Amino acid sequence: MATALAKAAESTAAVEHAARIEHVSKSFPGPAGQQLVLDDITLDVAPGEFVTLLGASGCGKSTLLNLVAGLDRPTAGTITTDGRPALMFQEHALFPWLTAGKNIELALKLRGVPKSERRGRAEQLLELVRLKGSYGKRVHELSGGMRQRVAMARALAQDSQLLLMDEPFAALDAITRDVLHDELTRIWAETGVSVLFVTHNVREAVRLAQRVVLLSSRPGRVAREWRVDMAQPRRIEDAPVAELSLEITDVLRGEIRRHGQH
Fold first, then answer.
1. 81 and 111 share a domain?
2. Are residues 247 and 220 both part of a single domain?
3. What band does 259 get if pLDDT is binned at 50, 70 and 90?
4. Which of 27, 50, 214, 261 has the smallest C-beta neighbourhood within 10 Å, fewest atoms?
5. Do strands 86-88 and 162-166 pair parallel, antiparallel, or not at all (unpaired)?
6. What dihedral do alpha carbons 134, 149, 189, 54 form, nearest 10°?
7. Tally of domains in the chain
8. What is the pLDDT of residues 55-94, one digit of tens each?
9. Is residue 157 a contact partner of residue 89, using CB atoms and an 8 Å limit?
């Protein structure tokens, strides 16, 4: 852990931000012409910071994450990141014909890690996500939560300073999701990686983040931000988490009413 924290400190000293989004807008063609999905978004993610991006369905959260990941280009504005981000989707997207370890090794191979080092590094990452001994397991042998842990290990294998997460726990049951919240918080603290996490679950946003950013309904704009000054680890049922969640929910509902959505 000391090495990871030292690495994070060096990264913080070297760069001012893990991601910088400056006046970004995004339009897509539609039946009535260009449809504005994101409008003049400006947002920074500091090195080592955990930011959750919150908003109603269809507000452009995933679109913004794809832009930061470099999967698409903004119509206007600029996005810069500290190296290439790693992206984790709602679906695990593991290759079913590969073992858990080989899925991770593929990411290491694409990064240029020598073949002689890949297995050892894959096993280290599996241990980090508390799947020690699962190197040889096939995807069908893993539970939903275990698959997401392997997907997280694969994302970390890219050795990126910025982890982008698009509702990665949305399909899981409440208990598994609660466990993975704890695991993600631990891994974030141990590695010093920056996280930009998309969700529509207000309590999840407050439980995980140092900062919650609320997007308005389409077109998505930064409506408001909250600094979450609560020590980790947190529980989703903690009174301060519930109190801030209620405040954010009231603002979110106001945004939805203002834009005429239900």
1. no
2. yes
3. low
4. 261
5. parallel
6. 180
7. 2
8. 887 788 999 999 999 999 999 999 999 888 999 887 778 8
9. no
Residues 96-117 pLDDT 10s: 999 999 999 999 998 889 888 9
Q: Are 49 and 65 in contact (CB under 8 A)?
A: no
Sequence-separated (6 or more) residues with CB below 8 Å from residue 2: none
Count each helix (H run) and each strand (E run) in the chain, helices first.
Answer: 8, 9
Q: Which of 128, 159, 190 is the last residue of a domain?
A: 159
For residue 189, give the nearest of 231, 154, 227 by alpha carbon. 231
- Give the C-alpha separation, 60 to 27, whole Å: 10
Residues found in the chain: 262
What single-letter DSSP state applies at residue 181?
Answer: H
Q: How many CA atoms lie within 13 A of 78 on its CB side?
A: 3
* Residues 121 and 245 both lie in one domain: no
Backbone angles phi, psi at 57, to 5 degrees: -55, 135
Rounded CA-CA distance 103/64 in Å is: 27
